[in-house]
Amino acid sequence: MNPTILVTGGAGYIGAHACVTLIAAGFTPLVLDNLCNSSAESLRRVGRITGVEPRLIVADIRDAQALDALFAAQPVAAVMHFAGLKAVGESTRDPLRYHDNNVAGSIGLLQAMQRAAVRTLIFSSSATVYGEPGFEQFREDMRCDPVNPYGRGKWMIEQMLGDLAASEAGWRIAALRYFNPVGAHASGLIGEDPRGAPDNLMPAITQVAVGRLPKLRVFGGDWPTPDGSGVRDYIHVMDLAEGHVAALRHLLAHDPTLLTLNLGSGHGISVLQMLRAFEQVLGRALPCEIVARRPGDIAAYWADPTLAANVLGWRTQRDLHAMCRDAWRWQQANPRGYASA
Ligand code: NAD
Ligand code: WQD
């Protein structure tokens, strides 16, 4: 019997890729998603890739009855908790919606897990919990001081997980701090499908390439970085998904623990380097303009991925070329995302 893993937010960008890696690793993903930022088509595509379409329960993580019914209906070995809202700017404009969905939603999920005695959890945290620590390479033992409501919510949840693990024996928890996930499954069948104008760099680039946006706006050319554009640690979404399976295997095989791990490549890439790498894949130049810095951005940061390598034996495998090639394959085949189907 393949152990069942509850995947909250499993119809979303990272969750759908995690479903693919879970199935490949011999687990059965069971997805709970309210589809507020995704479509069930992603899971049909997971079915085309793997031969197994994950079961979808359309429900909200704040729905205690739905969670209780789900846990009562089958044994669940662990939970991967991706469900959440993720737009930093929106969180500043509507913090209560973010804290209700992300923080209160996580509390509801944890309470339901407690009722069902399911105590193995992988939580989607973010490098945004670090804030602006004054160093470029972020390590897990650095002080966290997030600078926006989205990040503060993730940090509140991490702290809550610490309190929970200290209060009750048996919890196996991994809080994974993602850096900048990009790219898509190599099939081009699943990928990132933002609603409305994209906030993030890679979907902005692919939408320019496919003609949905007139040009790429590069936010700032005067950062104190080698080429003046912002530097981040981009991680291929399949590497990220495989990191989740490595964390799951680790948790299931070890004594109860609380792990906090960076998932990143350890390398900084600038906006202009990313654009050039993408143009190489595309075979043509893209229109772009250097505009003012985006409020809230910082110059440069990347992960120290040593701890994840030491604890999980996991490190990234896919390079910048693969990130651009796979993001483009997805966007080219699905110019309007899943709505193109
Ligand atoms: P996404 O929006 O594509 O996926 C999130 C999924 O959660 C969506 O399918 C959405 O419908 C669902 N969801 C949201 N609120 C819900 C609720 N209350 N109940 C049930 N389902 C709900 O986002 P993603 O990029 O796949 O991100 C997944 C997780 O990783 C999020 O928690 C996000 O904060 C975190 N994260 C993302 C990034 C990134 O850059 N993509 C970086 C760091 C952390
Ligand atoms: C990357 C770089 C921009 C768009 C955000 C969240 C973070 C995490 C990942 C969830 C920066 C520049 C971008 C564009 C540009 N998400 N850029 N033109 O801001 O590093 O991180 O997503 O947890 O919490 O804050 O990612 O992709 O928006 O930006 O020049 O159209 O690209 O200024 O230097 P960011 P991003």
- Helix fraction bin: 40-55%
The appropriate CATH architecture of the domain at 4-184 and 235-264 is: 3-Layer(aba) Sandwich
Q: Label the overall shape.
A: globular
Q: Which assembly state applies to the chains in this document?
A: single chain
What small-molecule ligands were found?
A: nicotinamide-adenine-dinucleotide, UDP-4-deoxy-4-formamido-beta-L-arabinopyranose
Find the structural class using helix and strand composition.
alpha/beta
Major sheet summary line: 7 strands, parallel
Listing every helix as H and every strand as E from the N terminus to the C terminus, the arrangement reads EHEHEHEHHEEHEEHEEEHEEHEEHH
Evaluate the radius of gyration: 19 Å
Low-confidence stretches: none
Note the beta-strand portion. Answer: 15-25%
Q: Tally the helices: what do you get?
A: 11
What name goes with the CATH superfamily of the domain at 4-184 and 235-264? NAD(P)-binding Rossmann-like Domain
The mean pLDDT is 97
By CATH reckoning, the class of the domain at 4-184 and 235-264 would read Alpha Beta
> Got a strand count?
15
Write the layout of secondary structure elements.
Elements: E1 4-8, H1 13-24, E2 28-33, H2 41-50, E3 55-58, H3 64-73, E4 78-81, H4 88-93, H5 95-116, E5 120-126, E6 137-138, H6 149-167, E7 172-178, E8 180-182, H7 201-209, E9 216-219, E10 231-232, E11 234-236, H8 237-253, E12 257-263, E13 269-270, H9 271-282, E14 288-291, E15 302-303, H10 306-312, H11 320-333
Parallel strand pairs: 1-2, 1-4, 2-3, 4-5, 5-7, 6-15, 7-12, 8-11, 9-14
Antiparallel strand pairs: 10-13
Helix pairs in contact: 1-2, 1-8, 3-5, 5-6, 7-9, 7-11, 9-11
This protein binds nicotinamide-adenine-dinucleotide (NAD) and UDP-4-deoxy-4-formamido-beta-L-arabinopyranose (WQD).
